[in-house]
Design goal:
homodimer, alpha/beta, 434 Repressor (Amino-terminal Domain), Rossmann fold, 3 domains, six-stranded parallel sheet, four-stranded parallel sheet, 13 helices, DNA-binding, transcription regulation (chains A, B)
Chain lengths: ~325, ~325
Amino acid sequence: MTTINDIAKRANVSRTTVSRALNNSGYVSEEARKRIMKIVEETGYMPNQSAKSLRTKRSGVIGVILPRLSTETSTRVVNGINEVLAKEGFQILLTDTELDKKKEIEYIRLLKSRHVDGIILLATNVNDELIQTIRDVDLPFLAIGQDLPEVTSLVYDDYHASADLTNMLIHKGHHKIAFIGVSRDDPSVGIMREQAFRDVMEREGGVIKDHWMGTGDFSIDSGYEEMKKILRASGKNRPRAVYAVTDRMAIGAMEYLKEQGYRIPEDMAVVGIGASSLSQYVSPSLTTIDYFNKKAGQQAAELLLAKLKNEKVEEKFELTYRLILRDSV
Amino acid sequence: MTTINDIAKRANVSRTTVSRALNNSGYVSEEARKRIMKIVEETGYMPNQSAKSLRTKRSGVIGVILPRLSTETSTRVVNGINEVLAKEGFQILLTDTELDKKKEIEYIRLLKSRHVDGIILLATNVNDELIQTIRDVDLPFLAIGQDLPEVTSLVYDDYHASADLTNMLIHKGHHKIAFIGVSRDDPSVGIMREQAFRDVMEREGGVIKDHWMGTGDFSIDSGYEEMKKILRASGKNRPRAVYAVTDRMAIGAMEYLKEQGYRIPEDMAVVGIGASSLSQYVSPSLTTIDYFNKKAGQQAAELLLAKLKNEKVEEKFELTYRLILRDSV
DNA sequence: CATTGGCATGTAATCGATTACACATTTCAT
DNA sequence: ATGAAATGTGTAATCGATTACATGCCAATG
């Protein structure tokens, strides 16, 4: 492996000059610069990033913490992040918490020790230890998906998105709507979306029944199972629509409905949230809400870059969404 | 930021002893060890990885190079890789070439300069400069998806998978099969799959016509467009089945067929490759081939770990696959 | 009792970069 | 002509860890 010293020797200068030439800092004669660059070309020399990072305290690496590596949402966000960061010469150090809150905290520390320049967290929950850890590591930090106090957060407007979706159902004539949510550990998905649903239903005179309210775990299977439970518990007085807080659960619900011979949307309307690629190609195509995840990733990366340049950035950002009306309603 | 020196001072030992305690190397008295560990706990000290890596030449980071961050195949593979590596305390440094061959090479060098311990490349093409670069960086290296000479490669058995799929179509009574492939830049997908198709068709008396052979670009849209072209060019004597080399293109083709009122599979059978989650939920569900991408990722990671431990590993590995028969045939 | 070897710890070199500071030379304004 | 400013280069310290080598102690061995 060639080092800066090798280059210096071959170019007959000190390594100081090589460093200056490479980083465009200080004065270097045109002559020396050319000589150095030529040798750099020839040898394919690349500065050792560990050494550089040790000295400068910057690594050109951004840590990204995901709840799950294999969901479309995560992938899209990472894609957006990467697009922006790669352009600026940053790399992504990826970690996957597998939805484990302990790991979330552990990884924040780990990334710090790995000298990342900043961290983007796709947050799924909010708790004091997490906030404390983020404060401790004292790095440019960005959260996506949950509103973390005193942390720059990009949040989806879950409340209004959910309210719009519910409203739409009601205005299409559905008053009896089943709901498939998730655990309240996840404030955005588990609480906000449900709250908006309940608020709108109440305001607009919809019918809410306890046994029409299911709780899944984000998976397609859980959507299927919850739908089954709801219909079995309902008997004759069944809901005429079902609102699942994620596309995957909505698609699970659709599967069960189709199996049981219900026609969608005539017998039962179905809606989800997320605009997954699945939602577009299932039959009938699923009405859903697009959260523009990729754009969220891009914006997060841009904000992080601004922070790295010591620009002041606001603390809260609300992301936009779009209702996509399709054939399932 | 606390360093090893801070710990040493507070524990009244030299940093050598702290290092030994932390790495379980050499002798450390039980007493000293306890004192050190206690302070480490209290301060939440984590060794600076840049310094460590500079000295030891190992970073605990594995570079992963993807052709595209946002495909299901990539995601599954990365997921498998991460599962295995995380367990061993490795992190993933992610790069996305956006299908650019230049970047592929650039990133290999970059990862080297970042001191990664090894590289896993999801390869999409094979060329001399690539091989040369891999040889140059001289790192534990693993390729997935293409057979790179003199590089440990995990390859999908594209030829036999494609042959099986074609055979299946023929034995279901389809002799007139359209084919939607991709550019020959990609040996595995662009050449092997087509070659197997042609070989089987010839052997089994299938009908191949030039205007039944399309070339897409992996996207759903391109599947749609190619299907349109093929049917328009065919007139009355149209194919009775279409084999697209990826699920996404198959789904695009299905979209067009459905739009035009063809019944699947009665009027036209459709098959793809990849076992995407889409394939399961489109209507009718798509017959496809599962390449077990996640397992491929796991195996790649395991092999890389073996290499890191200086174990000898073979150069070529053939991955298994599974034909999934669904309703589109 | 002298010697050997295990245990515990410390000193200082080292990894490969950046950078404060010093020094020499050239340029330029007054 | 002269001092100040600009230009070009080098010396050596530094970042935070690991590790070869040295040293001292103590118990066991013959």
